[in-house]
Amino acid sequence: MSLPIYIIGHKNPDSDSICSAMALAELKQKQGINAVAARLGIINPETTFILNKLNLESPEYLSTAKLKLSEIDIDAARIVSQDTIIRKSWDYSQEMNVKTVYVNDENDNYIGLATVWEMARIQMQDLHATASLLQHATIQNLADSVRGEVLFEGNRDRTGYVRIADKKMMDRDLTGAIMVLGDSEDAMFKCIAKGCAVIVIAENYVPDELIMSIAKDKGVTMITTPYNIMKIIQMIYRAIPIRAIMTSSKDVISFNRNEYLEDVEREMLKTRHSSYPVTNQGKLVGSVSRYHLLKSEKKKFILVDHNEKKQSISDIEQGEIVEIVDHHRIGDIETSTPISFRNMIVGSTCTIVALMYKEAEIKMSETAAKLLLYGMISDTLNFNSPTCTPVDTMVAKEICTEYNLDSASMANELFSQTATIKGKEFKDILYNDIKEYMLAGQHIAVSQVFTYDLADVNEIEHDFIQYMEEENKKYKYNFLLMVFTNIEGKGSKFLYVGDLSSKMATAIERFTQRGYVSRKKQIVPCIASELE
What we know:
Layout: E1 5-8, H1 15-30, E2 35-39, H2 45-53, E3 60-61, E4 79-81, H3 86-96, E5 100-104, E6 110-115, H4 116-120, H5 127-134, H6 139-145, E7 149-152, E8 162-164, E9 178-181, H7 185-193, E10 198-201, H8 209-218, E11 221-224, H9 229-236, E12 247-248, H10 261-268, E13 276-280, E14 283-288, H11 290-295, E15 300-304, E16 320-326, E17 340-343, H12 349-360, H13 366-379, H14 390-403, H15 407-418, H16 426-430, E18 434-439, E19 442-451, H17 455-475, E20 479-486, E21 492-497, H18 501-514, H19 519-531
Parallel strand pairs: 1-2, 1-15, 2-3, 4-5, 8-9, 9-10, 10-11, 15-16, 16-17, 19-20
Antiparallel strand pairs: 5-6, 6-12, 7-11, 13-14, 18-19, 20-21
Helix pairs in contact: 1-12, 1-13, 2-15, 7-8, 12-13, 13-14, 13-15
């Protein structure tokens, strides 16, 4: 199974991260690369509006970089019914080139497994144990094991012991025995008289009517086979049904397709089986071995709009980062091999993706063009943010010209429909877009939300500060700052809590007076400067 390369934004996805991921996925696909956009969190209302406007499905949700069994190649489970004889089970295992066959009951529920070793071991077991197992075989099982034909099916009880004609035959107790004989009808008569239950006759010999009549009268089963006596002795024990020798499902670890590989491997180390069943609600869906785990490849990721471990997918160290496209500061992501890392001083990751299309000389679809333009509008506050650069403006104009789009009307519709805090729960406001920093040894968190009307903040200010204080008891930030920013870039209102509140009060007042709107270029750098 070949997994795609997942293109992911940060854990609190905004429009820039989602739109850039989806547009970049299209570019990679046009370049012949199996890439898909994915997301690490809930889509916010603004991005939901964009996707609905463009009739697009939300990208696939990923919670971890860990691999699941469902994401690697495993073998098909080679299944036999519980009444299948060892002979047929062995032949099937050889035909399928597997060392383990799985056993289902009459309702196709998994009940056990048998290995080729367990099947072969029958020939080497103590005769008493083998005889006991052979009692489970039906008359047809016996005939099938030697490729024989049932001439008559009797009703004598069988002990399971297999005997041949020799000099001491008449001295032995043959009651219930399975006799393996040649064409000697005298031997057949004597065996019937001694109480045998079954006679298996070699080399297709069919007894005369007298012997058959006596056998029928005494209830002795008669089977003829093309095999010679030696071959019959070898194969007769393979008449045992597989259920008689299988290992019960209760005694073997099984896995389901949603288990993580690291958990599967840990359980495998506790036992020495060569293969393990993979089930779903009691039904077999596959077979997995250590080989499958060893040859599995890590999930591959392209990171957009972030390059810090804490912002990225959980367990990222278990995945493989193959590329980064970002416009933020360089973070702490580490890779084991060199990768393409594109980091530019622009206002939006979507701007970079648009440039990548241009450089590759690949025409983007109209949908991708709209995604990129929406992402730029969102991340640059319709090109009014201090983070906006001439490159952003130039790229946006080129897209508008080529695809006959109006960024101003797109921005007006987008912001008027989505930029409000009214009716939103406090947790959705605080955690919609929160980022953490270590500045001068202090643990800082800055959350930002955009709204049309900053006056709406006054209605919730008192209760919201109390909520922030309660939340900060959990996470123990030295300074937790909530930034409410006008969607058109006309300033911000700041609420904050934490040990550093008194120290930062004057600086925050200055932020308000200066109309700061950019977390990346204005607010966070100034906080860092104050703490130095």
